[in-house]
Amino acid sequence: MEEKPARILERLVNDCLKIAPCDLEVRYAEPMADHSTFKVGGPADCFLRPSGAGFPAFASALLASARAQDVLVFVLGGGANIVVADSGVRGIVLDTGGWAGDTEPWEGGLRFRSGTSLNDAAEAAALAGFSGLEFLAGMPGSIGGAVWMNARCYGKQVSDVLAETEGLDFSREPWDKPEHFSLPTDLSEFGYKRSPFQSRQVMILSASFRLVPGDFGAVRAKMAEYRHDREDKGHFRYPSAGSVFKNNPAFGGPTGKIIGDLGFRGLRIGGAQVAPWHGNIIVNTGGATASDIRALTQELASRVKAATGFDLEPEILFVP
What's the CATH code, domain 104-229? Predict the structure, then answer.
């Protein structure tokens, strides 16, 4: 990174720390391959991981200051559904992973900080005697990312149990202070892999879930079943982001089956390959670049379009 931009970012971060002190890990030219399940991605100009009780105030100050100085901020969840470009991320990556733990009771359920891993949230719910989050067991990612995406698996989606979302909205003027919001769930605003947060520049701080009492043994058994199923489907054999494309009921079957039936499993570009065992998973076989993954995603969509007329919609996000 050039010396001048580095000084600008360093000064911005230090100014925010004076406004809102917190525990802060700062890295410059940080490889984003170390922060995504695909294990690809170039360096972030500035990588920040705030933690402790000062997290919300620091995040608010950072978002306001960065917007005022025309510095881009990318909010990172668990890195489970993204492909960061080989050129990396200009500006600041704000990692929410330090804003985790401290699960709180909530009327009829639990509240989790956005950086809490999905697996940890499922475990915490089971230990608290609740059922409703079993489908998250073994799923990579964070609470914030899952709410943003309205993550779905095993016939359940986050919005089925999501009661309320708290966060910072930095999409509207004035830029001097992001708007704090607490939004009760309106199911009409959620859909298949869709949430109202995708159309706004927001950082989710916490999510409250409406759960039901559950037998600890039965809940843990169901969680173990889901974890084993993910393993059996090969989700963790190689670095990947799980499903590449969304399913569409209008296509008459799951996307993975459509791709498999067309004979495209094993299709490869560079180090990226359509999993030989599942048509809707692209894996990094070793040494793949973000460009390889993007090119294979586009090639796969093009071949399916030519063969069936179906327009596949990517589920993974390309950054930038």
Answer: 3.30.465.10
